[in-house]
Model the fold of this input.
Amino acid sequence: MDFKTHLEKAWRLTLKYIAPLIILTLAMIAVSFFTLGILAPVTMAGYMQSILLMIRDGREPKVQDIFSHMRLFFPLLAFGILVLLVVLTGFSLLVIPGIAVVLAVAYCCLYMLPLMTDKELGLVDAVKESFSMTTSGSWTDNLAVFIIFIGVISLGSTTFIGSLFTQPFAVIFLMSVYEARTGEGGEVVESEGEAAE
Done:
């Protein structure tokens, strides 16, 4: 995987659309905060799809985009509650199992939201497809994508102002990788090893 190309693309597009991206990110954070996180997953789904359309079509992100996939509210809410219960169970046993569960879910569901918005997959199918994408091909590349994405977001989240810049950059990077992995037709591109089989 050409990480340099994806990172340069993320940097270039972040600078090009900096004003609408900051407004979009600010709106998403505000909605998530004032709804106590209840609307966070569904607004993140709209946020990712808005950025994906920006990458594909050069379409400028708009605030209303974060509300464009409200039909996913109940599936994502149910999924969030289920994950929360599993994580709390892990933390009740010991801290390390809880952290392991959080990282495993985050890694396996890395592409879940764009698959639900872009390919209109149901929750279960999106989780399965995301798991397939994060476990096929080069595991080092998949792990590196996850580390870069989480690392950039974590780095920026230390300050509110920082998150307004690092959040869009990280999502553009992830959506650029997603676009390369799925191809223009929206189907997941097979790795060389899978194609040989």
Summary: DSSP finds ten helices and no strands in the chain. The first helix runs from residue 3 to 16. Residues 185-197 have pLDDT under 50 and may be disordered. The two ends are 21 Å apart (CA to CA).
